[in-house]
Amino acid sequence: MNKLLKTAICYVLIILLSCAVYGSARASQVLCAHSKIAVAAEKNSEMEAVCTAVQNGLVFLRSIGLDFSGSLAITLLKTMPSNGQESVIGQYDSRSNKISLLNYEAAVTASRLAPPAFGTPMNPEIWRGYVVHELSHAAAHHTFVAGVPVLTASEYIASVALISTLPAAEREEIIRNYPELSGFDKPGEITFGYYLLDPSRFAVNAYLHFSKKENGKRFISQLMREGLPDDW
Hints:
Low-confidence stretches: 1-25
Number of helices: 9
Distance between the termini: 62 Å
Order of helices and strands: HEEHEEEHHHHHHH
Shape: globular
Number of domains: 1
Structural class: alpha/beta
Strand order of the largest sheet: 1-2-3-5-4
CATH class: Mainly Alpha
CATH topology: Neutral Protease, domain 2
Mean pLDDT: 88
């Protein structure tokens, strides 16, 4: 009887833990192909979409010298933990090595609480771009040389990865929304304060800067070695 009781208690605890972490006992988990990246979500279609974004992201990250092969957990949520920013879509926690991301429906709702990112309403392509964005934070975190300032540099890399992995039509539309931007002229212009002021403009300027012939992968390698000042 004691053994059966202990087994029953353990089973209940597992269910409660699942509800606490995923917001619903119906959530399930899948390991993305050819990776150690686990995705937890209520809908299979969303898990598949996240894994597609992960694969696209990993390919791009490898192309710029960030070959991420470590483990990572991605959880889709209906609401993000309270952090004073109602429109936040996702975040990477380097302490737990986990990504929390709004599911698509919740992301659409959150995007309506502020002017839409990139001047474009939330859509599946941009939502998958946020997966790549947070994945890039994880990859960069594990690649930076120890001790370098990483906040600004990580946002630069994540912004570049998000826009670079969008479908060409979506990427071109975003660039057209910012005709006045031509990319940062020098590293000193890439500041965390600019990112906080307008993340979308920062991202477009980062992508256009990265796209210049003299930058690209070479500049990413420089960021890995030296970082960028985290001045606000």
